[in-house]
Amino acid sequence: MKNKIQEGQIYNSEEISIVHHTGSNKQTCFETNFIESKSSFNLLFLLSSHIHLEADDCETQFLFKKNEYILHYSFEESKAKLWSDHQELLKYLQIQIKYQYIVNLFNPQKNKESSEMLEQMTKNNFIFLHKQTPPLMTVEMHIILKEIIESSKKGMMQKLFVEAKIMKLLLLIFEQFAEKDHSENQSKLHIIIKKYIDENYSRNLRINDLSRELGINENKIRKEFKKYYHSTIVDYVSELRMLKAKKLVVNKDIMIKEIAIDCGYDYVQNFSRAFKKRFGLSPEKLRNA
Predict the structure, then answer these.
(1) Which residues pair with 94 in a beta bridge?
(2) How large is the average pLDDT for residues 160-177?
């Protein structure tokens, strides 16, 4: 059974409903309500400025700017109210997609990546409602929405057209969030590098190992670390090893050879040389001092 036809509805099927609200109706030009069906994904693209949103399942009011959007999963049927400030016409496009349609599309039982993506969607990890900056529509998203709104296709051709455009929108959203995650990781790159070194300095750690483990260019790793910690990675690793060695050396129950290996040195001679250079005397002399 098909969904009830809503005002401004430009497409409606068992799985997908699209509503384009233009503010042309005098009764709803500045304020309107919309329903999120049970077990559905809702893409809401805000096409005018200063749009407020108040939902039944959330105690907070949200204010959106023009060209922002959200992808929200609704577990239960809920109603949301939208209204605009400054007497500007209320404009938005809502695409509602049934959960089962996405499941059939992703086939999570046969693909781990699809399963993880679906889980992120149902946990609303693709939404910025509780952060300061909601995602902005890209140029490609604008083009797709325009094509959906202006399409004159009917019947099966319309169904295929709409579904293809929705899949493209989802792909763009996932790519946008992936880029955002990458950008955030890049801003914290020095922290990631240092954490990795702190956890692995005792083994035979090489820059190319670090590069391969983190998937980051060796030169970038060196530059980022030096920029934030004013030390080369080699010097930092050596300092960590020596500080650890100094603590262990005073314990006469541990052989010097064991300490060398525990601190990442394959040869005792190299360990003793580095130790003497750092502290001015050999491990044996420090132990017996």
Answers:
(1) 19, 44
(2) 90
